Amino acid sequence: MRNTLTVLAVVVLLALIGGGAVHFLNTREEGEQGNLAESAPSQEEDNTAPEQPDWCPRVEFISAPGTWESAADDDPINPGANPNSFMLSITNPLKEAYVPEDVKVWTLPYTAQFKNINAQHEMSYDDSRNEGTSRLEGELTYMHETCPDTKFILSGFSQGAVIAGDVADRIGGGNGPIPAESVAGVALIADGRRQDGVGINPGAHVGGVGAEIALQPVSTLIQGIVPGATMRGARANGFGELADRTFQICAPNDSICDAPLDVSNGLERARDLIDANGVHALYAYNPDVIDGATANQWVTQWAKDTIDAQ
Hints:
The protein has 310 residues and is an alpha/beta fold. The chain is 36% helix and 9% strand. The chain has a single domain (59-308), classed as Rossmann fold. The chain has 7 helices and 5 strands. A 5-stranded parallel sheet has the order 2-1-3-4-5, sandwiched between helices. The protein is globular and about 60 Å long. Keywords: Disulfide bond, Hydrolase, Serine esterase. Belongs to the cutinase family.
């Protein structure tokens, strides 16, 4: 009898253990399935490109004025720091031709100074150029992030041409603030880093180079005349992907963009940077830069053609 009870007890115990094990395994399986279900994404990822807000312009024309033709606190939409700024002879006709909702015309506000032996109180060329570059890239970054379909046209004169050209070179080289396909064109007038054969010359042949290239070998020597003005030489990328739509306009004998490579008279040539000879100041009137038009007339018409093609 005792053996029988013992056997029955063992059978009951095994049944309880087996039932508990089955319940445990079933519960665990359900839990694992539940966890797997929870980890699965509830919906597919949205890979669609961001939409262009209705207020965004079709094109933005960015103007970079030259030395002493802008100010850090100037109004980029209605600039007034220098009413005689050369770039106004381009931007004003564009503002008259297009409504701002279609074409945004934005003028770079930066200090635009050039510390030299005759103006020790001014911001150095390096600092002015760096400030302008940062602000221009900031505008491009903001607008491209906000309005991804907007196309950009970059243009500049003198120090502004150096700034716009530097930014265009980085964009064309693939390391700029916006992709190259967002840039419809670039027009540089009197670029201090101009190289013969880099970009497109729509006008008269010039045999020299930009002053920053010509004076690079004596950059240290000329610091007494133009302190804080580093002569950096040629740009790294030759405008890269933008080379086929970057235009370089330079008047023959302009010491800023058509400087001879001979550096034997480097100090004298550094003084030319300060004086900016008469040729440099006459792009709005000089008929010998581009056949049939002054430089500002040519850029204005080119900009209109480029805008209308977008």
